[in-house]
């Protein structure tokens, strides 16, 4: 208990709580439109052992639905776009799957329009890698078959090799097997996340680039009139935090219970605090509406 309190102080010291700093955050949003970017696993849903069961709560879904009524909102996830949509189930959002390599500008539009219209709303900078990713997925499944608890997930333009449920003494073997497979795929690279090894194309594209692309495409790239806020918990979210910090145009919010090196400005300790933050944004916006609009 003592130890976790100390950690908490350290994190607060380097990266203040977004809830405690809420007034300061909204003060810098005065006269601007807030644009929200939300990671999924560990941010909107708690981390669980089975990636197929990482459901978000109905309360969190309602909180995201509510913020999206007031602010343009996008989900930016390492999951495949289809999978993360299956979890979130909100048509009013934009979705960037596969760590930003599969962007659908508006899922609401995607159902009602023709195939041509759909294509103009889709951005897939790694599409040429699709056959290679399928091949790598098959090889990784085969290579890790003998490791109890290892789980390979196909995220369309990238592949996740999970070791959360693998005995700790076999973690190095998983890493070695993945390295060995990658020797046959020089155009794929490895990144790491929360008890997961992520295999993806070597292209210069990440969640940071995806956020820049979304800001531009949605005409939200004027820092004088837009304040982007990105909330995420993982290493891959750091690319997005960095973009906002370097452009000096918005805030990254790291979701973490432990102190971490981060490019984020603020922190929240768990998805429950993310929900509280989203609810606070909605309450603040509702208070700003003239009475006749609220009725
Ligand atoms: O960018 P994200 O939406 O955060 O996706 C990153 C990875 O998230 C998922 O894995 C993580 O969450 C799982 C469920 O809680 C957990 O079991 C796993 O250990 C975590 O690494 C997802 O399954 C991966 O494919 C994503 O790359």
How would you describe this structure to a colleague?
The structure is a single chain. This protein has 295 residues and is of the alpha/beta class. The chain folds into 2 domains: 32-109 and 118-125 and 205-288, 3-Layer(aba) Sandwich (Rossmann fold); 127-201, Alpha-Beta Plaits (2-Layer Sandwich), CATH 3.30.70.1020. Helix content is 42%, strand content 18%. The chain has helices at 2-14, 22-28, 58-70, 81-88, 107-112, 115-121, 130-144, 171-182, 207-217, 238-247, 271-288, 291-294, and strands spanning 33-38, 73-76, 94-97, 102-104, 122-123, 151-154, 159-162, 188-193, 196-201, 226-232, 251-255, 266-268. The site of ligand L263DTV3 has 24 residues, from strand 7 and strand 9. Pathway: Glycan biosynthesis; trehalose biosynthesis. Keywords: Hydrolase, Stress response. It is an enzyme of class 3 (hydrolase).
Short structural description:
This protein has 295 residues and is α/β, with parallel strands linked by helices. It is 42% helix and 18% strand. The strands form two sheets. An eight-stranded mixed sheet has the order 5-4-3-2-1-10-11-12, sandwiched between helices.
């Amino acid at each position: 208990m003592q130890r976790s309190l100390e950690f908490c102080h350290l994190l607060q010291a380097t990266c203040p709580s977004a809830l405690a700093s809420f007034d300061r955050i909204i003060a810098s949003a005065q006269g601007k439109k807030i644009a929200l970017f939300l990671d999924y696993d560990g941010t909107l849903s708690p981390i669980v052992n089975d990636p197929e069961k990482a459901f978000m709560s109905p309360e969190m879904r309602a909180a995201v639905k509510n913020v999206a009524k007031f602010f343009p909102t996008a989900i930016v996830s390492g999951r495949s776009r289809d999978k993360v949509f299956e979890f979130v189930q909100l048509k009013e959002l934009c979705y960037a799957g596969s760590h930003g390599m599969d962007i659908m500008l508006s899922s609401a539009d995607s159902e009602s329009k023709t195939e041509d219209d759909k294509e103009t709303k889709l951005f897939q900078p790694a599409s040429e890698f699709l056959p290679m990713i399928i091949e790598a997925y098959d090889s990784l499944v085969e290579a890790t078959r003998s490791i109890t608890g290892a789980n390979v997930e196909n995220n369309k333009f990238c592949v996740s090799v999970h070791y959360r449920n693998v005995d700790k003494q076999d973690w190095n073997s998983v890493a070695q097997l993945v390295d060995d497979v990658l020797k046959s795929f020089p155009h794929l690279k490895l990144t790491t996340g929360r008890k997961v090894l992520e295999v993806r194309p070597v292209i210069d594209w990440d969640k940071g680039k995806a956020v820049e692309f979304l800001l531009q495409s949605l005409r939200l790239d004027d820092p004088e009139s837009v304040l982007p806020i990105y909330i995420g918990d993982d290493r891959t979210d750091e690319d997005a935090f960095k973009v906002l910090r370097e452009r000096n145009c918005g805030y990254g919010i790291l979701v973490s219970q432990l102190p971490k090196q981060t490019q984020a400005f603020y922190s929240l300790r768990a998805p429950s605090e993310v929900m509280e933050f989203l609810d606070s944004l909605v309450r603040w916006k509702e208070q700003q509406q003239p009475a006749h609009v609220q009725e």
